[in-house]
């Protein structure tokens, strides 16, 4: 078996990076694995370096535009010295780097994992994204699609039909999640009687945290609650969300808690988890919340979230656009009539054996 290279754009906390660390550790049990990052210094770099596989960082410091293309020459120089290998690019954000780095290198096989929807209502950018995805499909030896919702895109449906793409849902180790949930409470709010609503993700427009803040503000007119968001973001992004919280009457009841190495200690003590995303592939955070029994609310726009929740059987689904609809769903999930996830997360086990088999199948 050729060397396996797992590629991520950076080590900042995200479902993509957490999945990458899990996949690298799993494959390292039987293969030579190197986890390569375009940029180092993120929250999860220390965890990566203790994972039992090699780690190679192309650039130190925070990514700067055009960061993907800037990382490509360094990756190309490194790939030339590796011999036969399979490079698995784990997230949409970083695919341009291995794509350009591997041009004309016949010893490199390529797996592009599509972890987010590409067809969004954003005009020219959306059309350019579709053109780019056609290039990736043509270049890929295999293309895992994270979540069944992506197959609705005709581009991916055709790739599935031709055997280039394969559906690969996200998963979670429920037993491990429940064990980690027993850690001490990471914040005093989680030990108080005032219910905490939790959101998780990078502070980016995709995650739609502004709508969550607005919904929490509407609901707080009727009852006491607190809103916590876990995730990283720029100083500007943090300031914008803080101001929005103040404008919506959440001053003193809103917390940007940053990054954590144990999301389950937060989730297990939250009264509800909300996923208001404008788009997703298959949300890891949603499955993490379900694995510890937290009542959930998810946007219908968030990839396969509605399917995971069986359209309301295991958690509430809202339209993804209405703050009042989200507020009403949160109110129900904070009540005695909450719709709980039960053992639904166990239907989505970790997919790492399937990934390893897929990677072995494209061995040069």
Secondary-structure topology with pairs:
Elements lengths: L2 E6 L6 H13 L5 E7 L5 H5 L4 E6 L7 H14 L4 E5 L6 H6 L6 E5 L10 H17 L3 E3 L8 H8 L3 E3 L6 H7 L15 E5 L8 H12 L5 E5 L4 H13 L6 E5 L4 H5 L4 E4 L8 H8 L4 E4 L5 H4 L7 E3 L4 H11 L18 H10 L3
Parallel strand pairs: 1-2, 1-4, 2-3, 4-5, 6-7, 8-9, 8-11, 9-10, 11-12, 12-13
Helix pairs in contact: 1-14, 8-13
Walk me through what this model shows.
With 364 residues, the chain is of the alpha/beta class. The chain folds into two domains: 182 residues, Rossmann fold, CATH 3.40.50; 174 residues, Glycogen Phosphorylase B (Rossmann fold). The protein is built from 14 helices and 13 strands. The chain has a six-stranded parallel beta sheet with strand order 10-9-8-11-12-13, sandwiched between helices. It has a five-stranded parallel beta sheet with strand order 3-2-1-4-5, sandwiched between helices. It has a two-stranded parallel sheet with strand order 6-7. α11 links the parallel β11 and β12. It is globular, with a radius of gyration of 20 Å.
In short:
With 364 residues, the chain is an alpha/beta fold. It has helices spanning 15-27, 45-49, 67-80, 96-101, 123-139, 154-161, 174-180, 209-220, 235-247, 263-267, 284-291, 305-308, 323-333, 352-361, and strands at residues 3-8, 33-39, 54-59, 85-89, 108-112, 143-145, 165-167, 196-200, 226-230, 254-258, 272-275, 296-299, 316-318.
């Amino acid at each position: 078996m050729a060397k396996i290279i797992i590629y991520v754009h950076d080590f900042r906390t995200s479902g993509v990076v957490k999945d990458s660390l899990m996949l690298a550790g799993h494959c390292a049990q039987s293969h030579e694995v190197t986890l390569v990052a375009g940029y180092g210094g993120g929250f999860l770099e220390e965890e990566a370096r203790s994972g039992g596989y090699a780690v190679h960082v192309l650039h130190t410091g925070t990514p700067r535009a055009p960061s993907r293309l800037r990382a490509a020459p360094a990756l190309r120089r490194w790939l030339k010295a590796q011999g036969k290998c399979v490079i698995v690019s784990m997230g949409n954000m970083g695919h341009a780097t291995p794509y350009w780095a591997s041009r004309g290198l016949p010893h490199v096989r390529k797996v592009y994992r599509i972890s987010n929807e590409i067809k969004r209502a954003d005009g020219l950018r959306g059309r350019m994204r579709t053109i780019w995805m056609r290039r990736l499909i043509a270049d890929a030896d295999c293309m895992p699609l994270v979540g069944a919702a992506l197959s609705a895109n005709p581009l991916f449906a055709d790739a599935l039909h031709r055997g280039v793409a394969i559906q690969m849902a996200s998963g979670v180790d429920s037993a491990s999640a429940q064990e980690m949930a027993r850690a001490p409470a990471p914040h005093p709010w989680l030990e108080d009687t005032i219910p905490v609503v939790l959101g998780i993700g990078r502070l980016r427009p995709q995650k739609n945290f502004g709508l969550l803040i607005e919904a929490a503000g509407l609901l707080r007119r009727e009852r006491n609650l607190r809103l916590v968001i876990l995730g990283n973001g720029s100083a500007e992004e943090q300031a914008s969300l803080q101001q929005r919280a103040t404008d919506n009457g959440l001053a003193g009841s809103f917390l940007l808690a940053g990054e954590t190495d144990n999301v389950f200690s937060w989730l297990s003590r939250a009264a509800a988890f909300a996923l208001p995303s404008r788009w997703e592939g298959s949300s890891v955070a949603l499955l993490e919340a379900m694995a510890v029994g937290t009542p959930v609310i998810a946007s219908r726009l968030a990839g396969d979230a509605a399917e995971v929740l069986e359209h309301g059987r295991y958690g509430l689904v809202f339209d993804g656009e209405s703050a009042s609809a989200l507020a009403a769903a949160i109110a129900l999930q904070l009540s005695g009539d909450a719709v709980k996830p039960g053992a639904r997360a166990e239907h989505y086990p970790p997919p790492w054996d399937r990934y390893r088999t897929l990677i072995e199948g494209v061995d040069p």
